[in-house]
Design brief:
Blueprint lengths: L1 E6 L5 E10 L9 H13 L7 H10 L4 E9 L2 E11 L10 H14 L3 E2 L2 E2 L1 H16 L5 H13 L13 H6 L2 H14 L1 E8 L4 H12 L21 E6 L5 E8 L6 H13 L4 H9 L5 E7 L4 E8 L4 H18 L3 H16 L5 H9 L10 H9 L3 H9 L2 E9 L7
Helix pairs in contact: 1-4, 1-7, 3-8, 9-15, 10-11, 11-15, 12-14
């Protein structure tokens, strides 16, 4: 278990997040939905506050403290977290120890849930299953999110990201009080634990409380977080799925398993389609009017770059061809110094804004857990400044087209 503290006197609040990294292999028959339901059960109530109303009253007593949860991919692992945020002690009107009390409440929620005899409370699971299923099913109403989910089945076949981190509707229907609790115990006993405490406090008391609370748990066979590049297919695969909808969404996956220049890779993605002066925006959207949006982003954990666009059905092929032309243009002729400087300015501005909130600066370091080493925003900024146009071009040349996915209406004409 690792305790990470980030202290900055400019913040007025403190946020403590307890995160668990677990794998997607053999988990004793437990499904992704079993694990996804766990944070729902931990943040709605606990043994001491057995319903949402009583827990909410306790939050109000802590000057409007709040609890949040998250389940997402982190490299090739599942990341499950529960976090609490509250004002710092110096703002308490009557000298309350807000940090200590909020940390104690976080421990109550995580380690003393509403459960007995190896099972979460049945009524709680019934309600939380409804919320989980609604979250899973809601993707169908957002075609961009649906395209992400469907495209992953081809782009990442055989990898954890092939299927949604929170499971399927069918898996969620099968979750029981016992299976969700078994996933909870697996998370506690075998998960790699990263605690991030961010705010203006020194968090020494929180570290002590959490160490004592988690120290009594018998843990073994700890799952270590790691990132692994996505395998490049021998030949690009093209898939089209049709459903009732008005517009089309196309996603093109490029992979570079050998990519190791983090900064040049990020700038390449920004120049290609990651900023308002990008080539995708100016040349494909503005000049050619081929799409409603066209952008790109790089996933350094998977060593992938994704170009995505929302288009009229008849413009799908033209947009894909235009994306390939812009990609090839950079690989053949490189980027201009003006483009490079603009990308650097935007990147440096984003880095500066990390200190605007405890969530963003905490997320910066959290996102590097699977990297094996941490880099401060200031260190990263210096590395960004040193990137040359040649390095950006070299990074781009490592990419190869892997998957082309299109979600479009049932009747399409490319005339």
């Amino acid at each position: 278990m690792w305790f990470n503290r980030i202290t900055d006197s400019r913040f007025k609040i403190n946020k403590i997040s307890v995160g668990f990294y677990t794998g997607f292999g053999d988990n004793g028959g437990l499904s992704r939905a079993d694990f996804a339901l766990v944070p729902y059960c931990l943040t709605d109530c606990c043994a001491k506050y057995p319903d949402y109303k009583s827990l909410s009253i306790r939050f109000a007593e802590l000057y409007g403290a709040s609890i949040s949860d998250n389940v997402s991919f982190a490299g090739n692992r599942r990341y499950t977290s529960v976090a609490i945020s509250t004002l710092d002690d110096r703002y308490a009107l009557e000298g309350e120890k807000l940090e200590r009390e909020s940390c104690e409440l976080l421990i109550e929620c995580i380690l003393r849930p509403l459960a007995a005899d190896g099972a979460f409370d049945a009524n709680l699971v019934r309600l939380m299953k409804t919320e989980l299923i609604d979250a899973i099913d809601s993707v169908i109403n957002d075609k961009r999110s649906l395209a992400v989910r469907q495209a992953a089945r081809t782009a990442f076949v055989g990898e954890p990201q092939e299927y949604p981190v929170n499971g399927t509707h069918e898996e969620a229907e099968k979750v029981t009080s016992e299976s969700a609790y078994a996933a909870y115990r697996h998370m506690l006993e075998h998960g790699h634990i990263e605690i991030f405490a961010v705010g203006c406090s020194g968090f020494s008391e929180s570290e002590k409380l959490l160490t004592e609370a988690f120290g009594s748990i018998e843990r073994s066979d700890i799952c270590e977080p790691y990132a692994e590049p996505s395998a490049l297919k021998p030949e690009p695969v093209e898939v089209t799925e049709r459903m009732p909808m008005q517009q089309a969404v196309t996603r093109m996956y490029f992979k570079a398993p050998e990519m190791n220049d983090r900064c040049a890779n990020m700038l390449f993605s920004m120049i290609l389609g990651g900023m308002t002066t990008s080539r995708f925006f100016e040349n494909i959207r503005e000049k050619q009017s081929l799409c409603y949006y066209c952008s790109s982003f790089a996933d350094r954990a998977k060593r992938t770059l994704v170009a995505n666009a929302g288009v009229e059905p008849q413009n799908v092929k033209r947009t894909q061809d235009a994306i390939m032309r812009e990609f090839s243009e950079i690989l053949e002729n490189g980027v201009t110094e003006e483009e490079l400087e603009q990308a650097k300015l935007e990147a440096l501005n984003d880095i500066t804004s990390l200190y605007d909130s405890v969530g963003s600066i905490g997320g910066w370091y959290l996102g590097q857990v699977t990297d094996g080493e941490f880099m401060s925003p200031e260190e990263y900024a210096e590395k960004i400044k040193a990137v040359t146009a040649d390095r950006v071009r070299a990074a781009g040349r490592l990419y190869k087209l892997d998957t082309v996915f299109t979600l479009c209406p049932e009747e399409v004409s490319n005339d």
